[in-house]
Amino acid sequence: MGLDNVEKLILKNRLKVARAEKDLTQDNLSEMVGVSRQTICSIEKGVFCPTAKLAFILCIALDKKFEDLFYFE
Q1: pTM beyond 0.85, yes or no
Q2: 50: DSSP letter
């Protein structure tokens, strides 16, 4: 893939599935990682793209590798 196609990439996630596997609510996860429930909801819906730092924290909280939680489409 050339650099000219990078802008077309969309970061997707499996946050909702990973959260359910840990039996966590959006509230639970938001408290664990220090953001609002609305932020978690927005990430799950693909409305908000997390920063690298937040993505890393989410991976730690959900015990997932980055590539298991986030992917490009």
Answers
A1: yes
A2: P
